Amino acid sequence: ATEAVSLRGGAYQAFRAPTILELYRTSGSSTVNAGNPELGPEELTGGELGFNYRMNAFFSAKVTGFWSEVDGTITLKTIGVAGDTATVIEPCGLIPEDGTCRQQNNVGKLRTRGVEFEFDVEPHPFWSFAGSYIYDDAAMIESPDPAIEGTRIRHVPRHHVVLNASFDNPSLFAAHVQGRYVGDRFENDVNDLPIDEMVIVDLQVSRRISQWAEGFVSVENLLDEEFEVRPTSRGLTEMGMPRMIHGGLRIRM
To answer: In the chain, pLDDT over 90 holds for what percent of residues?
Structure first.
């Protein structure tokens, strides 16, 4: 390592007992998620290695590689799907037409490996930029159920990007814009309910009115993009929130 570059690394082990909700809660309508009182704990082993780089007062970057394995992974396992008529599927009970029964289970060994890149740039006292990219290969590498061995972990995208730009001039105003890219992923363990990739942009502008008051306006999903949150086996898909605008006044006493 040098003054500009510093190395870091670590190894870790962890243990997680199942939660009360995972053990006993049953919820849902078309997709019913059942608890499982026979769940065992999860055990994690992992490590990471990376370096920090600071070129000068205006630019810095980080790179981190990571790896972990979880034995006894707790996740929702698909038990069955109803056909053209409502069907009783244990332990969920009566499942509506084209509905799905899922139950919390210790499904096998999960492996996560990937790399994260981060940077910060401050070219001017009023301006700053930052960003990150994560590549995350999360997969079920061992399972007694051949239907899910080798599948990707639900809700985990392989690619995730965040970009930030900020302007802050106390005599004028402050503005912050953030763009997020989330790659495609899956809603369920057997990877037959894909969720499309999405790009979301958020904006916030504020101005100090006095020593103790600040007005602000925030816009979530600035481009009013339509994006999927949760597809179902019935062909219905829960969509994300459309453009939302809200404002207010912050008082600092």
So the answer is: 89
What CATH number is given to the structural domain containing 213?
Answer: 2.40.170.20
- Closest Cα to residue 241, out of 223, 227, 252? 227
**What is the residue whose two structure tokens read 């101005």?**
207
Q: What is the DSSP letter of 92?
A: T
Rg from Cα positions in the chain? 23
- Rounded to an integer, the average pLDDT of 35-47 is 97
- Domain range spanning residue 23? 5-251
How far apart CA 207 and CA 173 sit, in angstroms, is 4
Total of domains in the chain = 1
Q: How far apart are CA 151 and CA 50, in angstroms?
A: 28
Q: Are 239 and 225 in contact (CB under 8 A)?
A: no
